[in-house]
Design a protein that fits this description.
Distance between the termini: 67 Å
CATH class of the largest domain: Mainly Alpha
Structural class: alpha+beta
Strand order of the largest sheet: 4-3-7-6-5
Strand content: 5-15%
Pfam families: TPR_1, TPR_16, TPR_8
Keywords: TPR repeat
Largest sheet: 5 strands, antiparallel
CATH architecture of the largest domain: Orthogonal Bundle
Number of domains: 4
Radius of gyration: 28 Å
Low-confidence stretches: none
Shape: globular
Number of strands: 9
CATH topology of the largest domain: Fic-like fold
InterPro entries: TPR-like_helical_dom_sf (IPR011990), TPR_rpt (IPR019734)
Number of helices: 30
Mean pLDDT: 91
Protein name: Tetratricopeptide repeat domain 13
Length: 657
C-alpha cells in the first residue's frame, strides 16, 4: 500500500491504517514508526511524521533516523533543531556526505556562511564528485560577495555535469549582479535550452537583454514569463509577480531611447499607482491602467560599442569613472562587487562634480525639461538617473512623488536584522551598536517612569549581550511589553537647535529565542519628509553660498566648512531614506562629486564592515557622522586632470548613448 500510496491517496490511507494496527499490536518496533513517517511526510503531515521519528529514535537511535528527522525539521525551517539532528547523525556515522551537506545548509539558511562553507568542503572531502555540494559552496561564496571563489565552485559543478540547470541559473544570476551581462546571458540561454519553462532564467534573460539595450529580444522573453499563469491555488512565482512591471518599464525606456535625458522624468511620467505597486512589490492589479505603447519599429535596438571606438578623452572619462565607482564598494560580507554599478555611479560622481561647479559659478543647468539654477534635488537626481540605468530591475523612485494616499499611510523601508533563526549578516557589525542604543533608551524610559526600579533595570541590562535576551527583561519590568517593543532613534536638527526628528524605528518581537523578529525601518510620511526637506534646503542654501565664495578664493577654512556642509546635508538624506531603492550608493556618489567640486578627492576606501547609510543612521548627529566619514575618506587635493575631462551630460545625452 505504501508503494502504491504515492500515486493514490486511498492507498496511502490504507497503508497508514495497516501500520497503525501493527503499532497497536507491537508498539516497540522502530522501523514501523519510520515507515509510517515516510508516508505521512509527503502528505504534508509533518508534525505527525516528526513525532513518529522521535518515537523510533527513542526505541533505537541510528544515524539514518536522525538524518531523516533532521530533513523534516529542515523542510519546516527549524534550522537550529535540524542542525542538532544532522550533528547526532554524523556522530553515529561520520561518512555521510548528504548529512554533511544538509548540516551546511542549516548554517547557510541562518546566515552563518563561514560555517556553511566549512561543512560543504567537508562533504566534498567525503564525496569528490558531489555536484550539489559544489553548487551550495558557490552559493555561499556568492552570498559572502567572493566572486572568484564562487565562480570556481560553479565551474567545478558544471565540469561534473554541464547540464546542471540549478548551477547554470545561480551562476547566471551572480554574473548579472556582478555586471557581466553578456556572460550571464549565455548561462540563461543554456538553462532555457534544457528547461524551456524555467521562469527564473526566462525572466533574467529578458532583464539582461533590456539592460544591454536589446529591447525586442528582452520583451519577447518577458512576455513568455507573463504567459506562465499559475494554476488555481498555486502560488505565483516572484518572477511572475515582477515581470509585468519590468515589461511596462522596458517599453517606457524603449520609447525614450533617443529623447535627451534632460527632457523627461520617470517619477512624473509613470502613473502613481504603478509606481506605488512596483516599489511595494505588490501583484499587478491596477485599476484603469493604460499600458505603455508597444515597441515602435522605427526605434532600433542599441548597438554594442567597442571601448576602442570612443574618443581618447571619453575613454579616460570611463576609466576615471570605473576607479571612482570602485571607491564606493562595501567591503562587507553580502555585497558582491558590481562593475556595472561602479561605472554608472562613477559617471554620476563626475556629472555631480561638473554640475555643482557650474552652479557655484552661477551657471544654470538643464533638468527635467527646465533650465534653472540647480537645487539639491537636481544634484541627487543626477545620481538617481545613473543608478536606474545600471539596473532596470529595481524601482529607484522618489517616495514623496508617490500618490498622496500611499504617503498618508507612510511608506516603509524595512530591513530584517534577525527573522526567526535567520541572521542578516550584512548588518552584523551594527548589532552591538544598536543594542547599546536600545539599552540607553530603556534606561531613559525607566528613569522617567520608574525611577525607584532604575538600579534593578540597570543591573539586569548589564547581563544582556544579545538582542534576543532583551525581550524577557522588558516583559519583567514593563507590564505593557507583551509580545515585543519598539524604540525610535532621534535625529537632532541643525536649523532649530534643540529640536529632534524621528530617525528609524527598531522593532523586537517574539516569544522565545529562535523565534524573534529584530528589524529596523524608516517610515516616510508627508510630515516627516517636509521636516527633513526644510533641513536639507537650509544646508544646501548655505553650501551654495559658501561654494560661490570658494570658487573665488581658495581659503583652507572655507574648504573645510564646505566639506562639513556636504556631509551634514547627506546625513539628513540618509536618515530620511527618500528613495524606494539605492539611497545609499546614490548619496555616496553625491558626497564624492560635491567634494570634488570643492577641490577635494576621496582617496580612502570604506572600511571593512562599515555601511555608510548605517553609520549615518546610528550616529548621534551630523557632526559625529562628518567626523566618522572623514576618518576614512582620507581627503586630498583633487588632481588637475579632472578639469580637462569632457562633460558627462554632453558625452552621454540620451539613454542610447
Amino acid at each position: 500500500y505504501g508503494k502504491k500510496g504515492l500515486h493514490d491517496m486511498k492507498n496511502a490511507e490504507l497503508a497508514l491504517f495497516e501500520l497503525s494496527r501493527v503499532i497497536s499490536l507491537e508498539p516497540d518496533h522502530p522501523e514501523v514508526f519510520e515507515q509510517r513517517a515516510e508516508i505521512l511526510s509527503p502528505l504534508g503531515r509533518i508534525s505527525e511524521a516528526l513525532s513518529d521519528l522521535t518515537k523510533a529514535i527513542q526505541l533505537q537511535p541510528s544515524a539514518r533516523l536522525y538524518r531523516h528527522r533532521g530533513t523534516l525539521y529542515f523542510i519546516s525551517e527549524d534550522y537550529a533543531t535540524a542542525h542538532e539532528d544532522f550533528q547526532h547523525s554524523l556522530e553515529l556515522n561520520k561518512n555521510q556526505p548528504i548529512a554533511m551537506l544538509y548540516k551546511g545548509l542549516t548554517f547557510f539558511h541562518r546566515g552563518l556562511l563561514k560555517e556553511a562553507i566549512e561543512s560543504f568542503k567537508e562533504a566534498l572531502k567525503q564525496k569528490a564528485d558531489f555536484i550539489d555540494a559544489y553548487k551550495s559552496l558557490g552559493q555561499a561564496y556568492r552570498e559572502l560577495g567572493n566572486f572568484d571563489a564562487a565562480t570556481e565552485s560553479f565551474q567545478k559543478a558544471l565540469l561534473l555535469n554541464q547540464n546542471h540547470v540549478q548551477t547554470l541559473q545561480l551562476k547566471g544570476m551572480m554574473l548579472y549582479h556582478h555586471g557581466s551581462l553578456d556572460e550571464a546571458l549565455k548561462n540563461f540561454k543554456r538553462c532555457l535550452q534544457l528547461e524551456p519553462y524555467n521562469e527564473v532564467c526566462q525572466y533574467m534573460k529578458g532583464l539582461s537583454h533590456v539592460a544591454m539595450g536589446q529591447f525586442y529580444e528582452g520583451i519577447k522573453a518577458q512576455t513568455k514569463v507573463m504567459l506562465n499563469d499559475p494554476l488555481p491555488g498555486q502560488k505565483a512565482s516572484p518572477e511572475y509577480l515582477k515581470v509585468k512591471y519590468l515589461r511596462e518599464y522596458s517599453r517606457y525606456l524603449h520609447a525614450h531611447l533617443d529623447t535627451p535625458l534632460t527632457e523627461y522624468n520617470v517619477d512624473t511620467d509613470l502613473p502613481g499607482n504603478f509606481k506605488d505597486h512596483w516599489a511595494k512589490n505588490l501583484p499587478f492589479l491596477i485599476e484603469n491602467y493604460e499600458e505603455q505603447p508597444g515597441l515602435q519599429p522605427h526605434i532600433k535596438d542599441v548597438l554594442f560599442q567597442n571601448f576602442e571606438s570612443y574618443r581618447p578623452d571619453v575613454q579616460e572619462l570611463i576609466c576615471v569613472a570605473d576607479h571612482l565607482g570602485s571607491m564606493m564598494q562595501y567591503e562587507t560580507p553580502g555585497f558582491l562587487p558590481n562593475k556595472r554599478i561602479h561605472r554608472a555611479m562613477g559617471l554620476a560622481t563626475l556629472e555631480v562634480m561638473q554640475a555643482v561647479q557650474r552652479t557655484w559659478a552661477n551657471s544654470k543647468v538643464r533638468m527635467n525639461g527646465k533650465t534653472r539654477l540647480m537645487q539639491w534635488r537636481d544634484m541627487f537626481d543626477i545620481a538617481v538617473k545613473w543608478r536606474r540605468i545600471a539596473d532596470p530591475d529595481q524601482p529607484v523612485l522618489w517616495l514623496d512623488q508617490m500618490p498622496a494616499r500611499s504617503l498618508s499611510r507612510g511608506f516603509n523601508n524595512h530591513i530584517n536584522l534577525i527573522r526567526g533563526q535567520v541572521i542578516n549578516m550584512r548588518y552584523l557589525e551594527y548589532f552591538e551598536k544598536i543594542l547599546h542604543f536600545i539599552k540607553d533608551r530603556i534606561l531613559v524610559y525607566h528613569g522617567a517612569n520608574n525611577p525607584k526600579g532604575l538600579l534593578e533595570v540597570r543591573e539586569a541590562l548589564e547581563k544582556v549581550h544579545k538582542v534576543e535576551d532583551l525581550l524577557p527583561i522588558m516583559k519583567q519590568f514593563n507590564s505593557k511589553t507583551r509580545d515585543g517593543f519598539t524604540v525610535n532613534t532621534k535625529v537632532p536638527s541643525l536649523k532649530d537647535q534643540g529640536k529632534e526628528y524621528d530617525g528609524f524605528t527598531i522593532t523586537i518581537t517574539g516569544d522565545k529565542v529562535g523565534n524573534i523578529l529584530f528589524s529596523v525601518e524608516t517610515q516616510t510620511t508627508e510630515e516627516r519628509t517636509q521636516l527633513y526637506h526644510a533641513e536639507i534646503d537650509a544646508l544646501y542654501k548655505d553650501l551654495t553660498a559658501k561654494g560661490k565664495i570658494l570658487i573665488l578664493s581658495a581659503e583652507l577654512g572655507e574648504v573645510d566648512a564646505v566639506c562639513n556642509l556636504i556631509l551634514s546635508l547627506v546625513y539628513y538624506f540618509y536618515n530620511l531614506m527618500p528613495l524606494s531603492r539605492g539611497s545609499s550608493v546614490i548619496a555616496y556618489s553625491v558626497i564624492m562629486g560635491a567634494l570634488m567640486a570643492s577641490g577635494k578627492e576621496v582617496s580612502g576606501k570604506i572600511p571593512k564592515g562599515k555601511l555608510v547609510d548605517f553609520e549615518a543612521m546610528t550616529a548621534p548627529g551630523s557632526e559625529a557622522f562628518s567626523k566618522i566619514a572623514r576618518s576614512w575618506m582620507n581627503l586630498k587635493s583633487i588632481s588637475p586632470s579632472y578639469k580637462s575631462l569632457p562633460s558627462v551630460s554632453e558625452t552621454f545625452p540620451t539613454l542610447r548613448t
